[in-house]
TrEMBL record:
Keywords, ordered alphabetically: CBS domain, Cell membrane, Magnesium, Membrane, Metal-binding, Transmembrane, Transmembrane helix, Transport
Function in brief: Acts as a magnesium transporter.
Name of this chain's protein: Magnesium transporter MgtE
Pfam family, one: MgtE_N
CBS domain ranges (all copies): 142-204, 206-262
Domain of life, source organism: Bacteria
Membrane topology reported for the UniProt record: Multi-pass membrane protein
SUPFAM superfamilies (alphabetical): CBS-domain pair, MgtE membrane domain-like, MgtE N-terminal domain-like
Subunit relationships: Homodimer.
Stretches that traverse the bilayer: 290-308, 314-341, 362-384, 390-416
Amino acid sequence: MMMRRQTKLNLFEQLSDLLKKGETELFRESLLALHIQDQVEWFEQLDDITLRKQVYEALTPEEMADMLEELETEEQQSVMEEMEREKWISTLNEMASDDVVDYLEELEDDDVSTALQEMDDETAEKVQQIMEYDDETAGALMATEYIAIKTTDTVQQVMSRLRDEAPEAETIYYIYVIDQDGYLVGVVSLRDLITSDPSEVIEQVMSRRVVSVQTNQDQEDVARLIQKYDFLATPVVNDEHQLVGIITVDDIIDVIEDETTEDFGEMSAVRGATGTDITAWESTKKRAPWIIMLMFLGLITAEVIGYFEDTLQTIVILAAFIPLLMDAAGNTGTQSLAVMVRNIALGTFDKRNVWQVLRRELLTGIMIGAGSGVTIALLIILFYEQNYVIAAIVGISIMLTLSVSTLTGSIIPLIINRLKIDPAVASGPFITTLNDIFGLLIYFTIATSMIEYLM
């Protein structure tokens, strides 16, 4: 492994040396022989602006497009700013339409309009078509570079066409079949074409069991569908069921990453503040509202403690176990929250099993609570001069609190999801604060009812 890494570093150094020596043809041959990801890795570590500009001159717009499609949007912007305008526009024309959209959406409106006017009419039209769809929908995610064939075509005609058009298509593993009016009617795999008689008509070869998505369908639903069927791509149709684009699995991987990051941000109350490129002020604006809201909820916790002030003054030792109780409640509730949000995100819930899952979580909480309660009660007896009453109060409180915490962490995401809100907004800090309140109420209610045995 170390040797392979060293070999790659040596190769990268050779590429840079070829550029410095002006050996353009040998540089092109060496670079393009690499896997596209290795090309990108080499380019990303190239800090010298002079050498980077030499790369732009040495590569064709199509070759630059292949590399740029693998870069993050921020890196694409840096590259485009360094390139000459004519080369920049030519490169945009060669990129996949969905990648062009991702790039243009980061520009100012005036810059977008100017770029579209300078691009090829056909490419600009495809890009504008995608940009009309709402964010995070299948239409906004799709690419329009696909190959569609007619039911009346022969296998031989299709194979001949693939030789000419395949380099421009997003994928050719699946070829979608449309009728005379552009309606999606079937799908043919590349393997089906290769193994079929060249004279056969596509209508006899194709499968009519084609699974598609609507342009306005949420990207998370598309991700679940592709995951369910193990597709490499899925067709996108409009309201009239006409084929308008395709979504490939590499785009879905990006969606899953983005949705996971978003859910993580929701659950930890830092939505939109997880990126490494945002400023401290931007991070503060996104996180402060949650903290302030949780502070107000924390006042309820303080009120609960204040309400049972007499109990605390009478039996001061009860205060020693408040942090333990609150931590246990928050941790258990957050675990249940994570389980429920994950199941909701994967779409594994239906009306038949939701009660089964809730019952399982409650039983889990009871068993964890019982085990934790017995354990802490024994420790209190051992270390607190065999104070059986305190042990009973804390043990029973732990058992009931953890049972309630698992139920709270399970039910709240379901309620929020039923209200058509992202269940991840039932964030960890929110659940934790809520369970703190319930835990303290349980703890002090039990302690107050047993205070006569502590005197």
